[in-house]
């Protein structure tokens, strides 16, 4: 599509908002891989759902605070502002489309069974996509009733996976293209490695075997972690050990942190990923080569992937991180082989706005919302 748009200009390049395109691409990908459903978002279909996602993901610091207050203070719960109404409407759209996905899938399974005769059993639900697996736990009559997921249970998973598996990866891939525009030598070296692969459609194993691509993706997900922070709530009183004493807000030196049951614990993912004590003095620089030798200080980070907090760790870590890493690699593989990238605005005009994910905005074009304008040139392999 980009190639066609560039060809149309007759100049060999075009200014393109990478964020919106990648967002459409990752929605199509999670739709297909997760639900065997074709949103055709790249072709302009299902814009209603994309609008709903944009509402939920538009960075709005006040909203985060409002949401927390809304959960904790009953009086605030009764206040509904315009933003809350938009969120409710967006969630309504996601619910309706989720129900449609489930209904379509169930109807397809039942019509197939009606032709063959007999009830639906586990072995009848062979699809590899997530929705089929969930419906297996919902419809199969040979699974005890008490162990089956209800329609509501299945429905609850649909927006979770669509949301969690869509904007995160597109944001990560967008920041990757940005980082490459700021490091032309890395972009060149990466392209050289990618062009050494003899096929346009590598297998997952072929993608995962490319060392420089792996370093670039790790470095992007370190420096530009799409989810910059999260929160946990202590389920019991606990004492957290610290590596060195610190002075608390009352001026007292402490050698541990006491946590009470119910306390909110802020997890500063991005700050840990960029900590100089862990990553060195150049921790704010995009330098994929740092991954040639893994940081010893980072080896104690309990992240589920790459000694990074990007997908956090523990039992509630990101369930989709393997999928996401392969997806990012596949997107970067295709894009960097075919195109060269430059930032279309002065770098100082690009700002990061933090919502659930960190997305780029252009200071001089705030009315356009989040975007990553790039000059994309067709790359002609010699
Ligand atoms: C670069 C891409 C991604 C990043 C940075 C990311 C990051 C995260 C983080 C930080 C969490 C923990 C949130 C919390 O509990 O506070 C999380 C949870 C989750 N992620 Fe991802 N994610 C990515 C891609 C994906 C993809 C592609 C999927 C689905 C295929 C996915 C599915 C989920 C789900 C379902 C959870 C909730 C897990 C649970 O609560 O048990 N994520 N992700």
Automatic annotation (TrEMBL):
Q: Give the matching Pfam families.
A: p450 (PF00067)
Name what cofactor the protein needs: heme
SUPFAM superfamilies documented for this protein: Cytochrome P450
The pathway to which it is assigned is: Secondary metabolite biosynthesis
Q: Name one GO molecular function term.
A: oxidoreductase activity, acting on paired donors, with incorporation or reduction of molecular oxygen
Q: Which residues bind heme?
A: 318
Keyword tags: Heme, Iron, Metal-binding, Monooxygenase, Oxidoreductase
Tell me which InterPro entries the record gives.
Cyt_P450, Cyt_P450_E_grp-IV, Cyt_P450_sf, Cytochrome_P450_monoxygenase
Q: Which PANTHER family match?
A: CYTOCHROME P450 (PTHR24305), CYTOCHROME P450 12A4, MITOCHONDRIAL-RELATED (PTHR24305:SF166)
The family line of this record is: Belongs to the cytochrome P450 family.
Q: What's the protein here called? A: Cytochrome P450
């Amino acid at each position: 599509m980009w190639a066609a748009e560039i060809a149309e200009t007759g100049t060999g390049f075009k200014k393109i908002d990478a964020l919106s395109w990648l967002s459409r691409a990752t929605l199509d990908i999670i739709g297909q891989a997760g639900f065997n459903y074709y949103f055709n978002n790249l072709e302009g279909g299902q814009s209603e759902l994309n609008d709903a996602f944009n509402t939920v993901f538009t960075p709005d610091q006040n909203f985060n605070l409002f949401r927390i207050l809304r959960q904790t203070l009953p009086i605030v719960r009764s206040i509904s502002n315009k933003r809350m109404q938009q969120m409710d409407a967006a969630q309504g759209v996601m619910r309706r489309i989720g129900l449609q996905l489930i209904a379509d899938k169930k109807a397809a399974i039942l019509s197939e069974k009606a032709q063959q005769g007999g009830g639906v059993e586990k072995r009848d639900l062979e699809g590899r996509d997530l929705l089929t697996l969930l419906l297996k736990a919902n419809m199969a009559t040979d699974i005890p009733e008490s162990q089956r997921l209800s329609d509501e249970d299945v429905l609850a998973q649909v927006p979770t996976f669509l949301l969690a598996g869509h904007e995160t990866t597109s944001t990560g891939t967008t920041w990757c293209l940005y980082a490459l525009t700021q490091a032309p030598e890395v972009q060149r070296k990466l392209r050289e490695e990618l062009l050494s692969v003899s096929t346009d459609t590598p297998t997952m194993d072929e993608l995962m075997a490319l060392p420089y691509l792996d370093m670039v993706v790790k470095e992007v997900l370190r420096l530009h972690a799409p989810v910059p922070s999260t929160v946990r709530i202590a389920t019991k009183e606990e004492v957290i050990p610290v590596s060195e004493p610190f002075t608390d807000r009352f001026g007292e030196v402490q050698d541990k942190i006491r946590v009470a049951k119910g306390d909110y614990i802020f997890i500063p993912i991005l700050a840990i990923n960029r900590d100089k004590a862990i990553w060195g003095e150049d921790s704010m620089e995009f330098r994929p080569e740092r991954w040639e030798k893994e940081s010893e200080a980072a080896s104690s980070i309990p992240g589920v992937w790459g000694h990074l907090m990007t997908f956090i760790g523990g039992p509630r870590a990101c369930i989709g991180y393997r999928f996401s890493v392969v997806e990012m690699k596949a997107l970067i593989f295709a894009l960097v082989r075919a195109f060269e990238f430059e930032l279309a605005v002065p770098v100082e005009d690009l700002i990061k706005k933090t919502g659930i994910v960190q997305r780029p905005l252009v200071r001089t074009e705030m009315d356009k919302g989040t975007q990553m304008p790039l000059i994309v040139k067709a790359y002609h392999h010699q």
